[in-house]
Structure formats: C-alpha cells, structure tokens
Amino acid sequence: MRDDLSTLTREELEREVRYWRAQSLLLAEDFGGLRAQLASHADEVETLRAQLLSYAQDLNREYQLVRQRTGEIERLLVATVGALANSIEARDPYTRGHTDRVSRVTLAFCSRLGWKREQLSIARMGALLHDIGKIGVPDAILRKPGRLSPAEYEQMKQHPQIGAQILQGIDALVPAIPFVLSHHERWDGKGYPQGLAGREIPIEGRILAIVDAFDAMTSTRVYRAPLAMEAAMAEIVRCSGTQFDPELVPVFERLFADGLIHQALESELTLELYVV
Ligand SMILES: [Fe+2]
C-alpha cells in the first residue's frame, strides 16, 4: 500500500482500494482452503487413531486368550504329572507324600537361587516326576521292608534311566529330564547312574539330591523313625562336598534358617508364590 494516500487522485485511490479488496478476497479464499485441508487431515488422523486403538484392543484380547490357554495347558500338564507321580506312591506306601513335599521344597530352593517362572515350572515337574522310573521296578523290591540285596539294589538303581526314557517321549516334559536322570548322582562321583562328579552333574540333579535326601531323612520309613528337620539339616551339612554340592548346601541351610522350608511344606503348591 502506498504511504501517502492524501496525494492520490480519486481514480488512483479507487484503484488502490479495488486492488486491496481483491487481495484480501484471495487471502480469505486461501485461508478457507487451508482450513478445509486441515479439517480433512484431522479426520484422517482421527480414523488412524481409532484403527490403531482397535488393533491394540484385538492384540490385547489375543494375548489374554493365549495366556489363558497356556495357563490351562500348564494346569492340565501339572495335574497329569501329579497323577503319574501318585501312581508311584500308590505302590510304595512308605513314600506317600514324598514327591509332593519334594516339589514344594524344590520350588522354594530354586526360587532362592533366582530361577524364573518357566524354570520354576520345569523344576516342579522334574521334582514331581523324579522317581517316575520306579514304575519299572518290581513291587517285591519297591515294597521290601529292610535292606535290598546287591542284585535288588542294582535293579532299583535303574529308576533314573527308566524315568528319563519315559519323559523322552513327551515333548513338554523333556526339559525336566535332568532332574529325573541325575538326582542320585553324588558330588564325589560315587553316585548313579552315570557316576558324574562335581559340576559335571547338572545343577538340577545337584539341587534335587539335597531336597530328596532331606525329605527321605525327615519322613517315616518302615525300618526307622523320622529324623527331626534340624538333625537332617546337620546331616546334609556333614555330607557337603562328598555327597552334596558344597556351594548349594549353604543356600539350602539359609533357606531352612529363614523358615522357608517349613513355609513351603505348609502352603499350597503354587508357582505364583515364587514368581516375582
Ligand atoms: Fe530316586
């Protein structure tokens, strides 16, 4: 716009006015177009947002469903495994409740060692099934009161391998095999079936060896009265470095001192108790 309008002639002034009126109309049109564009983009953004929200909700529903199904399958598997384990105990009344107690204490122990949910789930299966191979041991040996003859003992010693062979056929239980196969190995190499020593023995076997022995000592057997837990603990400590892993024994001792073995034996056998 010109600076000094007072010097313009009437025609020039009218021309100026027409010019600026046209300019402002053009600007108004542009502005209207921009506003329309922005509005249509806002619609697109809103549609995208709604779509994303709906995808997220679908995904979440799927996830919940998968989780629910996984949980159901796991419960079913645990129930089946429990039934299998009970079938062993039904034949051997002196070990009634043994696998259940061993499972509880194994969970508490593995949890203290920092194991996560999936590993704990496998540990529970392994502990429940550790003696499943006794299915292949004759009743006359399994239920024999008193000492076994050397030949009978040889047959009894087959149970970890028989158990491992049984689990080999069930994909979901394969990860539990080290518990089953190695729970009678000894730190000093004098155990069975493979005679492994020290860290050659899978950690699963080294853990279960302690828990299994602890429960065997504290439960009633036909040929002897149960030991008090404190006495059984002292025996485990005495055999640290010969029968048991000398690094795991102190962890087990602390677990006992903290009252967590008592707690495990008294509470329901549930993973959630140990999953952090
Ligand atoms: Fe065993």
Automatic annotation (TrEMBL):
Domain spans labelled HD-GYP: 73-268
SUPFAM superfamilies membership: HD-domain/PDEase-like
A Pfam family annotated for this UniProt entry: HD_5
Cross-referenced CDD domains: HDc
Protein name: Nucleotidyltransferase with HDIG domain
Native species: Symbiobacterium terraclitae
